Amino acid sequence: MKNYMMMAQPILALLPEVSRPQRIPPIKERIMWTAAALFIFLICCQVPVFGARPGQTSDPFYWMRVVLASNKGTLMELGISPIVTASLIMELLSGVKIISYDVNDKKERAVFEGIQKIAALFITAVEAMAYVSSGMYGDVREIGTIMSGFIVLQLMLATLICILLDELLQKGWGLGAGTSLFIATNICDTIIWKSFSPSTINTGLGAEFEGAIIAFFHLLVSRSDKMRALKEAFYRPQLPNLTNIFATLVVFAVVVFFQGFRVPLMTKSRHAAADRQPYMIKLFYTSNMPIILQASVVSNINFFSQILSRRFGQHNFLINLLGRWEERAYSQSGQMFPVGGLSYYLTPPATLYELLNDPIHGIFYVVFILFSCAIFRSFG
């Protein structure tokens, strides 16, 4: 298999690549490169896909956009999903010895990384074509074949930019891993926007500010019943509310606390069996990569399940086994939710009522998360 991999070198030479620095850059320069990479990523998260005509269509990545650092309707529509999926596939093939390479050999490692790039671009093309053909960007007949192909090309170019930015950070020019920083940046951007967004949305009860904090002050000033206004600011169902913000802060504080938590692991010397020393390991030793891999797998299952369900209807047994989808009264812009099949059990309960109504769903989801993350960690 090594020979087949090396045969791909002429094709890989056509792909752009970030070279490693000849010296370790000073910290100020690394901060500058990191800031530049994140700035480019944020721009891609805001630039809409040219030629798309999005309407009130369901979002297949609705549940996983935060983890996959993606933004609906923009160049970062697919986020890091193709990159993570390609990495997972290549690592699985390497783990079962279908693909073998020497990690210490620079040429073989470069070829392996190059093939992984091609795999990520191929996955992007497949997902983008599925997006376009399913009508996510409007009726294909109205968009036209040329514009449909241009939309696919835009998403592939965005994935390539994401790959190069990830390479830039991982090869020593920046700080940290690209995928983790992209996720953190996307989360921070989402929190700030949903807290302070000045845009207004008509919910049927009049125009309301999207930002939870701005809406809080607006409701207190504009409503005569202050207690009702306060309750609405904390519990409004279809827009960000103060409960969401406080819950986010609590989760953040808990994660920071456990991030610094150490567990002593007693070790003993080979030469002196009686000499036992504690070795401190992080409680979060596995980091966030298993969660990212698990989210990527689930997002792809839900993505194709929802597209197949929409195209072939609800009367195909195999498609229903993969997932049944329905729109709910409180859904946003025609958003579909899984109500049966594999996709239903792979997604968390949407509300506390759903959890109490179907506790098996919640138990299965927790067990699946723990089991799948443990498996993905074993490949890391």
UniProtKB/TrEMBL annotation:
GO cellular component assignments: endomembrane system; membrane
Assigned protein family: Belongs to the SecY/SEC61-alpha family.
Main localization (coarse): membrane
Domain of life: Eukaryota
Keywords on record: Membrane, Protein transport, Translocation, Transmembrane, Transmembrane helix, Transport
Pfam families associated with the record: Plug_translocon, SecY
Record keyword Transmembrane helix present: yes
One record GO biological process: protein transport
Record-given protein name: Translocon Sec61/SecY plug domain-containing protein
Domain (Translocon Sec61/SecY plug): residue spans on this chain: 39-73
